[in-house]
Amino acid sequence: MSHVAGAFTGIVRDKLAELEDGDGSLVGTAPTIANSTATDVEGLVADFNALLAALRSRGVLAS
């Protein structure tokens, strides 16, 4: 796994941990999101921001 992909995975894992409601389940429902095909940091940032926007639109993350 590349350094960028590893960092992205860690960020996602941390954000998901923040969403747990104490019993291991997540608050809200997550939308279906395609896997990132980013090949550079800018593409990864765009994919991550799209993920955050999708989670906000479903009420999983606060706006």
Quickly list its features.
54% helix, 63 residues, mainly alpha
Short description:
Helix content is 54%, strand content 0%. The chain is mostly helical.
Describe the structure in your own words.
By secondary structure, the protein is mainly α. It has one domain. It is 54% helix and 0% strand. It contains 2 helices and no strands.
- Rg calc: 12 Å
Q: What fraction of the residues are assigned to beta strands by DSSP?
A: under 5%
The succession of helices and strands, N to C, reads HH
User: How many H/I helical runs?
Assistant: 2
Q: Which runs of at least 5 residues are low in confidence (pLDDT < 50)? A: none
- Tally the beta strands: 0
Helix and strand content put the structural class at mainly alpha
- The helix content is 40-55%
How does the overall form come out from the CA principal axes?
Answer: globular
Biggest β-sheet strands, sense, barrel: none
What's the assembly state of these chains? single chain
End-to-end Cα distance, whole Å, is 31 Å
Overall pLDDT metric: 78
Give the number of domains. 1
Keywords: Host-virus interaction
Pfam family, one: Phage_head_fibr
Subcellular location: Virion
